[in-house]
Design goal:
The chain has about 160 residues and is of the alpha+beta class. It is built from 2 helices and 9 strands.
Length: about 160
C-alpha cells in the first residue's frame, strides 16, 4: 500500500522538528561568570518550632496560630485522702468459689486469688486492690494501705 505524498511530507517534517526541539532543550546552558545565582538556589533556613508549657492561666499560645490566645486552666493538685475512704466503700464481694486449698473471691466482677493484685474499675474510679486473705464467707482486701473485710451480702 502506498502512502499519499502529502502525508509523508507532514510526517517527515514533524519528526525533524521533534528531533530539533529535543537537541535544543538537552544542550547545557552556558554560564557566564557575571550571572548572579537565582534566589531559589540560596539555602533556606527553616525556623524550629518552640513549644513551651505555661504555668499561669491565659499565657498559652497556639503554635500554629500565634495570635490566638488559649484560655488554659491550671489544674489544682487533688488530695487522695477523701477518695481512699470512698474507694473502699465502692468494693463489693460478689461471690466466693474455688477449692479449700485455693479459694477465689469475686470483687466487683473481678475474680482474685489469695495474694493477687488486680486493677478494678468501680464507680469511684480505677483501684489497685490486693487480696490479702479469703475465708469461707468473706475476703480481706487492701487498697492504698487500708485493709477491709468484704462480706457476702445476706438477703435473708
Amino acid at each position: 500500500m502506498k502512502t499519499p505524498r502529502p502525508l509523508t511530507l507532514v510526517l517527515t517534517l514533524s519528526a525533524v522538528t521533534a528531533l530539533g526541539v529535543a537537541t535544543v532543550n538537552s544542550a547545557p546552558a552556558a554560564k557566564t561568570p557575571d550571572a548572579k545565582a537565582p534566589a531559589a538556589e540560596a539555602e533556606v533556613q527553616i525556623p524550629k518550632s518552640v513549644f513551651t508549657i505555661p504555668n499561669t492561666a491565659g499565657a498559652a499560645r497556639d503554635p500554629f496560630y500565634p495570635n490566638r490566645i488559649i484560655q488554659a486552666e491550671v489544674s489544682k493538685p487533688t488530695t487522695n485522702a477523701a477518695p481512699r475512704v470512698a474507694s473502699l466503700s465502692c468494693l463489693v464481694l460478689k461471690g466466693l468459689s474455688g477449692t479449700p486449698t485455693s479459694p477465689l473471691a469475686m470483687v466487683n466482677g473481678r475474680t482474685m486469688a489469695r495474694g493477687e493484685d488486680a486493677e478494678i474499675v468501680t464507680e469511684c474510679g480505677r483501684l489497685l486492690v490486693h487480696c490479702v486473705d479469703i475465708t469461707t464467707n468473706s475476703a480481706i482486701v487492701e487498697v492504698g494501705g487500708e485493709r477491709r473485710e468484704l462480706r457476702l451480702r445476706s438477703d435473708f
